[in-house]
Amino acid sequence: MTTSDFSQRLIEALGPDTVFTAPDDIEPWLTDWRGLYKGQAQAVVRPRTTEEVAKCLALCQQAGVPVVPRGGNTGLCGGATPDGAPANVVLSLDRMNKVRSVDTIANTLVAEAGCILGNLRRVAEEANRMLPLSLAAEDSCQIGGNVSTNAGGVNVVRYGMTRELVLGIEAVLPTGEIFHGLRTLRKDNTGYDLKQLLIGAEGTLGVITAVALRLFPRNSVRSVVLAAVQSPQQALELAELVNDQCGPRLQAYEFFTGDCVDLVLAHAQGVQEPFAQRYPGYVLMELADTADEDALNALLENVMGAALERELCLDAAVSTSMAQLQALWKLREEISEAQRADGPHLKHDISLPIEQIPAFMESAEKRVREAYPDIRPFIFGHFGDGNLHYNLSRPAGAPREWAQQQGDAVTDIVLDEVNRYGGSISAEHGIGQLKRDHFLHSKDPLELRLMRDIKRLFDPAGILNPGKLL
Predict the structure, then answer these.
(1) Which pLDDT belongs to residue 1?
(2) Residues forming a β-bridge with 389
(3) What is the pLDDT of residue 298?
């Protein structure tokens, strides 16, 4: 069967307003957000219902046609971008964007996979609840993609990864069968928890069509501190104090270097210098509670007073209004966009045993600079949960192609150090195309064999998201 014949079958089954085959209609769906990957496809399918997803997958399974599930296209590893096979079908969930229910007694929210994360957070707020999953791309990423990649974000230190927020999943398997796992039960101890296989699988086992999420009491009282630190080690010692004194009120604990601040000030609009002088590193921490603003502020003042007295930080600025809180967060949130404006960066989303972060940063920089003395590190991350974004940019004056030309060699050095410290080569961005080779070389052989067995069980024809993960 030719691709045109199969595309016509899709159109007959789903309609011309769901299946798009004109080259101009397909073109925008072939490239990832960073512009690293571009593939091919014979059609883009944009279903409105789970049943339409099932029809599409059943037809593709019968014909052996590869399917690439796609969310908001905010991924950084090429996991939602088709490869070079002309037969690919891109399956977008963007039209499946209904909120099916919000329950403020059980504290649950059920939403279709194409819902924008930021919209879901606002729906929760309107119900006086909080959906704690929060990341820089939340106003364009989709919840189905978040679940498929087990997204992290800034609140992991308090609420955990996406996996810990998911109660149930509805998904379509490659055969076209619908997995009816959209339960809102907090307790269901009846054998294997199959939804966990779909979370973080990057669309290689099934297409998530709806999710049931946990909600939490809305933290209407928030306070942010930006603390200047001398070193990553000092940032961790400060974290220990804050954890001891503030307990579960600590909602986020972020670290970034002075070089990141310079980059943001150079490329972002509406960002202000945080202190009178530049410091080597910065910690941005947020405390949140459901009530008693005075008590929270008093706690924060006591903690930061103790931190300064014990020389666990060099300076500190505390938010006194929502505008100041947002301004302090903007310093951290604009780093990725500032890197994009600066030019291609080599991004390494890694995790490490938290106590090993300072040693890793020292040894990794030493090894990288031995090979590339003028490389520019821009390092930030979620220190509270051990996640580091170890990003490197071309030397000043080097051509923009430098990252593409030298990227593999630089990444080999960085990820070798990650493995030496017992870390992970992907903390929250997934594997996709970008890290597939390193994943296959660094993962335990038994784990890889079990993963391949699971893949064959769910997707014996191998049609789902080929070239990704395994």
Answers:
(1) 66
(2) 349, 380
(3) 87
What is the SS3 assignment for 455? helix
- pLDDT per residue over 311-350, tens digit each? 999 999 988 888 888 888 999 989 988 998 888 889 899 9
Structure confidence at residue 292 (pLDDT) = 80
Q: Which two tokens stand for residue 75?
A: 């991924």
pLDDT at position 305 is 93
Q: Which two tokens stand for residue 117?
A: 């994360």
User: At a CB cut-off of 8 Å and minimum separation 6, what does 12 contact?
Assistant: none
Identify which of 122, 209, 199 has the alpha carbon closest to the alpha carbon of residue 166: 199
DSSP category for residue 256: E
The dihedral sign for the CA sequence 327, 328, 330, 334:
positive
- Greatest Cα-to-Cα distance within the chain, rounded to the nearest angstrom: 75
Closest to 224 in 3D by CA, of 130, 149, 356, 322:
322
Instruction: Give CA–CA dist 316/331, Å, rounded.
Output: 14
Q: Three-state SS string across 58-112, please?
A: HHHHHHCCCEEEECCCCCCCCCCCCCCCCCCEEEECCCCCCEEEEECCCCEEEEE
Distances (CA, A) of 221 to 132, 292, 297, 391: 14, 7, 9, 33
Q: What DSSP line would sit under 150-207, residue for residue? A: T---TTHHHH--GGGGEEEEEEE-TTS-EEEE----S---SS--THHHHTTSTTSS-E
Cβ atoms within 10 A of the Cβ of 305, count?
Answer: 11
Q: Which residue has the tokens 């891109």?
A: 90
Provide CB contacts within 8 A for 459, sequence distance 6+.
Answer: 173, 174, 204, 205
- Which helix or strand (DSSP H or E) is residue 289 part of? strand 281-289
Render pLDDT for 120-171 as a digit per residue (tens, 0 to 9).
999 999 999 999 999 888 999 999 999 999 999 889 999 999 999 999 999 9
pLDDT tens digits, 12-27: 999 999 999 999 999 9
Q: Are strands 387-393 and 376-382 parallel, antiparallel or unpaired?
A: antiparallel
d(CA 5, CA 118): 39
Which residue ranges of the chain lie beneath pLDDT 50? Answer: none
* Partner residues linked to 214 by β-bridges: 108
Contact (Cβ atoms closer than 8 angstroms) between residue 88 and residue 26: no
